[in-house]
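Contributing new records

If you add data, match the layout below exactly. Sequence lines come first and carry their own label; structure lines follow with theirs. Keep one chain per record. Anything else will be rejected by the validation script.
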Amino acid sequence: MLADIKEIATKLAPRLIEIRRHIHSHPELSGQEYQTSAYVAGVLSSYGVHAQQGVGKTGVVGDLCGNGESDRFLAIRTDLDALPIQERTGLDYSSCELGVMHACGHDVHTTVGLGTAMVLSQLGEKFTGNVRFLFQPAEEVAQGAKWMVEDGALNGVSGILSLHVFPSIPAGSLGIRYGALTAAADDLEIIIIGESGHGARPHEAIDAIWIASQVITSLQQAISRTQNPLRPVVVTIGKISGGRAPNVIADEVKLLGTVRSLHPETREALPNWIEQIVANVCKSYGAQYQVSYNQGVPGVLNDPTLTKLLEQSAREAWGSDSIIILPEPSLGAEDFSRYLEKVPGSMFRLGVGFKDKHNYPLHHPQFQVDESAIITGVVTLAYSAYKYCQQAKK
């Protein structure tokens, strides 16, 4: 079966590159993936895969059903949306949309999902399993997975697989991670309320900007001395708003940030820990405060059984030298974790790095991928799906 999958994928390679470049040239932002969804549904339908649009608002679900020997569905999830970034790659197929770019590789993800469906559909009677392809919108704003689940995309699904491109891994290789792959990502808002006054007489006012700076410093210092260093926490304040004029002491400052953590127990304690630090600083200088801590997506925790399936499938397909067991998780976030709250699943890293030139990171305006990685992803997922369905039969 592996030989059949590789042969079909190789023949489809030119078409898959064509698909990827079309999607790359026509990126759409989160929740606005209307043309991408229609294009995906059209490709699925042309290969006999039943496609349903409008799932999760702008998502697509494609069902490929075998001969009924197994009543379990394996889901394969990829994402559709692009980023608000002006592309600077200079590629012939660069983004046609001003200020929008597939700088996170979702064009590759979508193409791999389509390629997997195309390969499995061409196996005919040799493939007896059931696979559901989820083409999810709005991953970049961490909403699309929730929308898909709410619309029943996981109904009947017993396991789920996914991938994410990784430019630091060369094309032709894959990164496998057991356990935690990504961190939980939460949203933080802190408002410091002081008292305005003349810039020349600071002792008559309560300087919200200065106090805000003390809050930021205290948070960063406290992490190193009050949090378990073996359970990492990252607090990043990414936006500060406050003040009216250079000679007027600000009476209010708003801080917006993100909080990343890997361990559920640590995450649960973070809201109170942050508020206590803010309260102590503000009390020292006579300011008031408001803290709003909103939990975002949990971390991706890969299921050991499905991760082992991915690893074995990849080793059989590409050899052990192409498999990298990732020693550490990322503190990035992925709303793939929303599916894992419902069913077991696993996500792997697809190497897309060039071996002979500089590789820009994800979310960079010059981010590029080695397109040979598409076949690596397609064969890995198609063969994993085959093995999963064979195990289900047993």
